[in-house]
Design a protein that fits this description.
Rossmann fold; 5 strands; single chain; alpha/beta
């Protein structure tokens, strides 16, 4: 699949220690995370994107326990993805100087209450290649909004994980031709 390299961005959704370091959230996706090599695959895509001059954009979920904005923050009382905690930090090796970070997220869809739309416009993005956690929730919701807002959006399944292989496969089927194989994503990002 040939995607336009010069108008493409790589969007990383919740590559944060809450998911990737030991703990409750990581136990939920641990099997799929390992089986899919999601972290090492994503690191490879990030390297290709940077080498190819493709913007790398991070969409973390960071909850301020003093301002519980959004349903997720209120339900969890700010105990997860907590601002200032190591659990809210980026997964080791994923973020680098020069990457763009989205601010203001309060819910699963990375567009809601955040500056993601403006960040994508500033990058001149037409095509958005997505990786992240969890596939059927934050990634899928952000993907649908990106399409609805006119972006040519794709998800790289090998760079995502969720609670089970069944849920992963079901989500990939729903993506159809928008599930971008890892090798195609790497070739696109590398230019």
């Amino acid at each position: 699949m040939n995607l336009p390299h010069d108008r493409t961005v790589l969007l990383l959704i919740e590559f944060q220690k809450q998911w990737t370091d030991s703990g409750l959230h990581s136990r939920l996706i641990a099997r799929q995370l390992r089986q899919r090599n999601a972290i090492s695959n994503t690191l490879e895509l990030v390297t290709a994107a940077r080498a190819g001059g493709v913007p790398v954009i991070h969409a973390p979920l960071v909850i301020d326990p003093k301002q519980l904005n959004g349903t997720f923050a209120k339900l969890t009382r700010g105990r997860f993805f907590t601002a200032g905690s190591t659990r809210a930090e980026f997964t080791d090796g994923v973020h680098a100087a020069g990457d763009t970070v989205v601010h203001g997220r309060t819910t699963f869809d990375a567009f809601v209450d955040s500056d993601l739309q403006e960040v994508l416009w500033a990058a001149g993005a037409e095509t958005v290649v997505m990786c992240g956690f969890i596939t059927d929730q934050c990634v899928a919701k952000t993907f649908r909004t990106a399409l609805a807002r006119g972006f040519d959006a794709f998800v790289v399944p090998e760079c995502t994980a969720t609670v089970s292989g069944y849920v992963q496969r079901r989500t990939e089927r729903a993506l159809g031709s928008r599930a971008l194989p890892f090798e195609d994503a790497r070739a696109t990002l590398a230019g």
